[in-house]
Amino acid sequence: MRVERLSQDKIRIFLTFDDLHERGIEKEDIWRDIPKVHDLFNDMMEQAYHELGFEVMGPVAVEVFAMPAQGMVVIVTRGKSQPSGDDDGDYEDDIYEMEVTLEESEDVIYYFQDMEHLIEACHRVQLNLEDGGSIYLYNDKYYFLLDEVDMENQQLYNGIIAILSEYGVASTVTKYVLAEYGKLVIRDHAIQTICHHFK
């Protein structure tokens, strides 16, 4: 489990499928109202508090992005009506009013802080997958979109995800956002094009 702050009232939590399996949670359980999921959320909030000083009481918006092979990204946003502290103090700290939304994507999208990391990743991926992918520039980051991976070959698929995770970060930005707001750098054959031009 990895936690990072996005703003004063928003954090992002990366959960691997190993994180879920350790707690006996299946991917499908994440949007069910069961004790194991509540315990997972409490663990996430505890880690966020210890690592980032991010404290949650009252209303929160929780967005869950499920991605194949990578795991899940959970965005937690604090509501504006946090308890002031001069209440009677009879509310329980571990009670949250949660509004949960879930999105699932079959696309593989990673972003890279600089072009060098993207180039290295493409050279490594090319050993497993000769061609494919698109590249966008969005919010000063390079986004690598791969939607042609052979889903049937799980070993190949997991290998590609492992390489991309080493150099980049799994993205919750969808291909539709990239198409609408990003700048298209390479439309098709991104792996081949990058490896050809950057030895």
UniProtKB/TrEMBL annotation:
It comes from Ammoniphilus resinae. Belongs to the MecA family. InterPro entries: MecA_C_sf (IPR038471), Neg-reg_MecA (IPR008681). The lineage of its organism: Bacteria, Bacillati, Bacillota, Bacilli, Bacillales. This is Adapter protein MecA 1/2.
